[in-house]
Amino acid sequence: MKPTGLRIAQISDLHFGRDVPAIAQTLRAELRDAAPTLIAVCGDLTQRARTVEFQAARAFLDQLPAPALVVPGNHDLPGWRVWSRIARPWRNWRQQMLTDANGTVIHTGDGLVAVGVNTARQWSLHPDWSRGRINIRQLNEISEAFDDAPRDALRVVVAHHPFLLTEPGRYRGLVGRSRLALQHLHRRADLLLGGHIHLAYSGVVSGLVIAQCGTAFSDRLKGEPNSYNLIEAEGDRMTVSIRRWDGDRFDTHQRTEYVRDGHEWRTYS
Ligand SMILES: [Fe+2]
Ligand SMILES: [Fe+2]
Q1: Is the pLDDT of residue 124 over 80?
Q2: Distance, CA of 74 to CA of 121 (rounded, Å)
Q3: Domains along the chain?
Q4: CA angle, corner 219, sides to 214 and 222, nearest 5?
Q5: pTM of the full predicted structure?
Q6: Which residues partner with 68 through β-bridges?
Q7: Whether the Cβ atoms of residue 210 and residue 39 lie closer than 8 Å to each other
Q8: Which of 205, 206, 202, 217 is nearest to 249 (CA)?
């Protein structure tokens, strides 16, 4: 089973300021060869939300070989520069990314509808402000975009914070309101994409495929090499391939196959 109809490259946690240029260059070349339908960029484009880091991120995005859907992460906020964080949290983002950070981003066509939402928050009741959250407005906007899409389009949500954790990353916490989001998206969405914890894996929750991405080319490793995901889908079949950096190039480390029964996905075995 090798779906080839639609191909999404998922990259995340670029962390310009802590990027490794040789890996970034190799990734860009690989993406050119892979010819994806869409490149989903799951946030943390910068290390400290500085102008020079955003400029580097912008230059990288401008050279990508396919349309990119980009969402911010917590590192794209001004960290502990408290005044900036409160008064103008997304100023640098807006100036360099040329999008409203809090707006929903939608890509349609080529057999898919992908909706990007900003789950990073400028402050939180939780002491760990790196944690994110999804809200009702965003869920409603996702639903509206999906309702308007052709029936057979693959429905994809692009976010930064995770909807699924594995043991090594459990201490980072799920995106706030993840349970509500999963209930809301049940039978509405096909695929949720996230980053943030710099660990790559995929799985099924509530009938949705969830794919988490490692850091594509930063040196901020959390116990595993740099990676990106290549997701291929056709009809009721989907594969998620984790492509890991081996010191010279990216190589397929793990490929997981999924199949859809009715509106629900499950692991294919
Ligand atoms: Fe990150
Ligand atoms: Fe993050």
Answers
A1: yes
A2: 7
A3: 6-267 (3.60.21.10)
A4: 50
A5: 0.96
A6: 39
A7: no
A8: 217
Structure tokens at 31: 């993406």
Amino acid residing at 229 = N
Q: At what angle do helices 136-147 and 178-185 cross, to 10 degrees?
A: 20
Residues 6+ apart with CB under 8 A from 97: 45, 54, 57, 58, 70, 72
**DSSP code at position 74:** G
Measured in Å, residue 194 CA sits from the centre of ligand 1 at: 11
Q: What confidence tens digit (pLDDT) does each residue in 166-210 have?
A: 999 999 999 999 999 999 999 999 999 999 999 999 999 999 999
pLDDT in tens, 221-250: 999 999 999 999 999 999 999 999 999 999
pLDDT in tens, 125-135: 888 889 999 99
The CA 108 to ligand 1 mean position distance, Å, reads 27
Q: Measure 232 CA to ligand 2 centroid, in angstroms.
A: 25
Give whole-number Cα distances, 201 to 71, 209, 210, 228, 254, in Å.
Answer: 20, 11, 8, 10, 9
Ligand 2 centroid–CA 61 distance in Å is: 18
* Beta strand spans in the chain (E): 6-11, 38-41, 68-70, 105-109, 112-116, 154-158, 191-194, 201-205, 208-212, 227-234, 237-245, 250-261, 264-267
